[in-house]
């Protein structure tokens, strides 16, 4: 089911990872009750994806490359435990276990050879946006784990070299994300995601899964629910304190929050143009916790940038901080359109309120007509303020403003 890379995570939860968005998913449920071979299977519309593999993994006499479920017909000369594996993976994926379809790979007695392709897409999968972090997820089950275990490696494919989305192959027999299931033969199953995400710049991609295990004795498994994930981190920004005196200092914090699979993300960047009137403070104190990233924030300058930022595998978030200031009172809004990002979802607006020393209220007037239209109002602390509806009165010195929305700061 191709979904495209259009989803972005909601800003506003810095430091709290959200789930990655699914770009493409294949659950092999476009099959029926009769087993079908992987190379004959056609995925669901609209992409109608097809798949292939290297010859050893399409050797059906070895019970490799066969799509089946527990409740459907048997595959001749293949062990019944394959149906138990399909049932277990149905539990992992949250579907109806008896009718859950999987791709079986049992290697009866012929060694398939190491690092042979066990699964590969044949048609390109469109990517709606460039500069996104892409990784994968898959459900895998294995039996006979006291023998040689499968070692599954996922790659993104395209016009250039294949790009790995892992640092360690998936071993469903030993990975802590797997657990025992009923069915005999030391059956273990689990859901797995890549521990490395790739900053992908092309408009389409493919995926392939390679099995690093070359033995036949063991290496008995099945896979299901292959997914391509958009694991692009979320950028958030905030001023602290959000209100300062004119000429005072506020710390702008940019938080990069990883997605929930916590894969490593390398080489993201952003450039933020500060609102007009806001500048980097003389004591900028610019710093970052984003790996090898470099912060650019020149004292007196009007922008903040990060280049080459990193999140390590397992890391939830990192930050960029810099002190900023403004020489005039007013309300300054740092909007999303002022920031450019590579490998990051853009943030929502952040607001800095600057008041004159001794003032306690800052009003922002918008709308049409009236004495105060479009102006910012500062009121000394010893002057009472009445702001409501369409008028602002300051001890009767100002006439009512017509057609304005007034907000006390």
UniProtKB/TrEMBL annotation:
| Stored InterPro entries | ChpA-H, DUF7933
Q: Is this entry keyworded Signal? A: yes
Predominant location category? secreted
**Please, which domain of life does this record's source organism belong to?**
Bacteria
The Chaplin domain, residue ranges: 368-408
Q: What is this protein called?
A: Conserved repeat domain-containing protein
| Keywords tagged on the record | Amyloid, Cell adhesion, Cell wall, Secreted, Signal
The species this protein belongs to is: Streptomyces mirabilis
* Protein's UniProt keywords contain Transport: no
Question: Which Pfam families does this entry report, sorted A to Z?
Answer: ChpA-C (PF03777), DUF7933 (PF25564)
């Amino acid at each position: 089911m191709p979904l495209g890379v259009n989803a972005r995570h909601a800003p506003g939860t810095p430091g709290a990872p959200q789930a990655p968005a699914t770009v493409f998913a294949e659950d092999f449920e476009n099959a029926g009750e009769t087993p079908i071979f992987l190379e004959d299977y056609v995925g669901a519309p609209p992409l109608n994806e097809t798949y292939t593999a290297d010859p050893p993994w399409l050797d059906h006499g070895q019970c490799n490359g066969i799509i089946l479920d527990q409740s459907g017909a048997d595959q001749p000369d293949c062990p019944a435990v394959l149906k138990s594996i399909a049932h277990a993976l149905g539990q992992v994926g949250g579907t109806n276990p008896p009718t859950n379809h999987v791709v079986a790979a049992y290697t009866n007695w012929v060694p398939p050879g190491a690092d042979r392709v066990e699964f590969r897409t044949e048609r390109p999968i469109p990517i709606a946006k460039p500069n996104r972090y892409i990784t994968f997820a898959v459900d895998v089950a294995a039996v006979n784990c006291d023998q040689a275990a499968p070692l599954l490696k996922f790659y993104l494919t395209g016009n250039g070299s294949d790009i790995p989305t892992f640092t360690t192959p998936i071993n469903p027999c030993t990975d802590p994300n797997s657990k025992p299931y009923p069915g005999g033969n030391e059956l273990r199953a689990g859901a797995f995601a890549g521990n490395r995400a790739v900053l992908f710049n092309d408009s389409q991609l493919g995926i392939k899964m390679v099995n690093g295990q070359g033995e036949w004795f063991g290496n008995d498994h099945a896979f299901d629910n292959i997914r391509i994930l958009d694991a692009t981190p979320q950028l958030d920004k905030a001023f602290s304190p959000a209100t300062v005196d004119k000429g005072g200092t506020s710390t702008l914090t940019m938080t990069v929050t990883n997605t929930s699979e916590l894969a490593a993300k390398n080489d993201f960047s952003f450039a933020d143009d500060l609102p007009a009137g806001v500048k980097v403070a003389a004591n900028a104190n610019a710093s970052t916790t984003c790996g090898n990233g470099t912060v650019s924030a020149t004292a007196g300058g009007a922008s903040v940038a990060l280049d080459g930022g990193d999140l390590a595998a397992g890391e939830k978030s990192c930050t960029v901080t810099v002190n900023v200031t403004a020489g005039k009172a007013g309300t300054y809004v740092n909007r999303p359109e002022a920031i450019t990002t590579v490998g990051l979802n853009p943030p929502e607006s952040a607001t800095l309120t600057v008041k004159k020393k001794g003032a306690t209220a800052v009003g922002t007037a918008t709308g049409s007509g009236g004495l105060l239209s479009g102006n910012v109002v500062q009121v000394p602390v010893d002057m009472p303020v009445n702001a409501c509806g369409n008028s602002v009165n300051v001890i009767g010195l100002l006439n009512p403003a017509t057609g304005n929305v007034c907000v006390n700061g």
